[in-house]
Amino acid sequence: MRADNNLNWVECLSWDQVAARISNGAAAILPIGAGAKQHGFHMPMNTDRIQAEALASKIAERIDVLIWPSANYGHYPAFAQYAGSCSLSASSFETMIEEIVTALVGYGCAAVFILDTGISTIAPVSRALERVASSRTVHLRIHDGPRYRIARERVAEQSYGSHADELETSLMLALAPDVVEMSRAEPSPASAQDSPGALTPSDTASSGYSRSGSFGDPTLATRAKGEILLSAMVDDLVEQASRFCARESVASRHENTL
Fold first, then answer.
1. Complete domains list, the chain, with CATH
2. Which parts of the chain fold into alpha helices (H)?
3. What is the pLDDT of residues 151-189, one digit of tens each?
């Protein structure tokens, strides 16, 4: 069982309880976060899933939402050379997201928020939502909010990075410090900053070489930085979701008066 509020998690409810929540106006969240993707030597393979579910739970503390089980396989081609890192083709991932979101829209959820913790997943999710073609879907990209961008500029010391780096490691120190082994954190080589995308743990001649799998410098991470990043990120996500729900509520009331 989950330690947080079970009433927000579809997997913990019966189908009629889910139906009642939807009838009462609950929105839906579909977290997207890899359950098997390398995150350096210092963080577990399910780092993205931990982030996705923790953020969904924090949104549910402030907005009436139901959280669906995470989509924990996705399109992550940059990490395929690291043992255990599973990546779907873009087309397979798009189809999966399209079919899940179509179902959530069909159930009558007031809004469907796709909470995307990835980078390579952004374009496939956007294409999937274009095919669903519903005004009730919102693509929540966790790094895009204005508060988060300001917080990132405030705390970042590394010169580059985007994966298992200073920022992501700091975020995890705030969310799940017990799973982070800072003694094993290892920065990527300076040459990796010119990487075209894919990383490799073994080809030392490649610009994408990173023995640990990090892209950036996780040794600079602290929990204090993570708390700043987390607060900004959650505020951004809640604001975007709240504004959408309010807009949908107004539109629904308008339709009912016609």
1. 6-257 (3.40.50.10310)
2. 15-23, 47-60, 90-106, 122-132, 146-155, 166-175, 223-257
3. 999 999 999 999 999 999 999 999 999 999 999 999 999
